[in-house]
Amino acid sequence: MQLIDFLSPVSEEVFNTIQNSSPKSLVNVLDIHVKNIPDLENIHIAIIGVKEDRMHETHAGCALSPDEVRKHFYKLVKPKFDVKIADLGNIEPGASVNDTLFALSSCVKYLLDRKIVPIILGGTQDMAYAQFTAYQGLNQNLNIASADSNIDLKLNEVSPISSNYLYKIITHQPNYLFNIVHVGNQNYFVEQESLDSFEKMNFDVLRLGNVRSKIQDTEPLLRNADMLMMSMNSIRAADSPASVEANPNGFFGEEACQVSRYAGMSNELSSVGFYDMNAAKDIDGRSAKLLSQMMWYFVDGFYNRKNDYPVADSNDYMIYRTTFKNSDYEIVFYKNTLTERWWMEVPYPKERSNHKGIFLVPCSYTDYQLALTDEVPDRWMKAYHKLF
Description:
Blueprint: E1 7-8, H1 12-16, E2 31-32, E3 45-50, H2 65-73, E4 85-91, H3 97-113, E5 117-121, H4 128-133, E6 142-147, H5 165-170, E7 177-183, H6 192-200, E8 204-206, H7 208-213, H8 218-223, E9 227-231, H9 253-265, E10 271-275, H10 286-302, E11 317-323, E12 330-336, E13 342-347, E14 358-363, H11 365-372, H12 378-387
Parallel strand pairs: 2-4, 3-4, 3-5, 5-10, 6-7, 6-9, 7-8, 9-10
Antiparallel strand pairs: 1-4, 11-12, 12-13, 13-14
């Protein structure tokens, strides 16, 4: 395939809004699709806009969002690093929504094959299913992170094509999903059946209140994620009035930026999608500005990756062993002395392991403290049940 078959140039209108930009501004640093598709050699990150908003009548206006976000993203000063980012332009609406989904999945897979991280600018979160299908045949144990105000696992029997993206991901065949981490849900929007289903599948949930009380706990959950799907519905309307489903509660803008940065820092994360912004509802460009800053923080996190996964021949780790009173079993914790990030061992069938029968789960100091009180961390139990 050729990317040019699916992507149109960035609109000239975007550049008309940028006057007297600094040489350090991203508009002067990125390789942007204006006439020709950028050369992807040595590129680390590629931006793709998706101008699709036909899933539901309330989505009209979402197709405007990618270019509105660019107007503000391009004005931002680049991080201190020598960034290698290409903006590949937009996927125009296909003859049908399925055509758009196919185009996005094809473009994302093309980039994944070349070890380039796509940043997807939606469009609605229905596009996240195409982001997921791009991994088919590439990763047999996919870890997904999702940030949204709701967890909805119901099938839309009237219109299956517009069924909730999580339902389609979980039921997708062939199955290559290992785990879902969901952060920011507000439980007055979530049916108990959805929470029960997540619990039965040993998926991780960190509701808005938990994130708000200690946002650092989201970092270990995101550390193993291969892809992030972030809905602007997870952000409160005061900070993002252009969310498809604007709510009075949600992440503060700075919390959304922190989550984006944590995701960028994940050594495993290879794609991110920002969805559910309806530019037609924006006020003073507030949502577009916030999303552009979330993208900036993701890029900053990407260039701050630690590459600190525990390895046998490293001297940068302290090992802590906790033994339970009524059992001979112990949990082994690893702490990187340079980054102060933690992992814990979970037994893993040796025939399925590339790490000598050990599966390492990112965790926090809080999990270690919990083990010291003779309690098994919930994250350890979920991983154990999924592995066996």
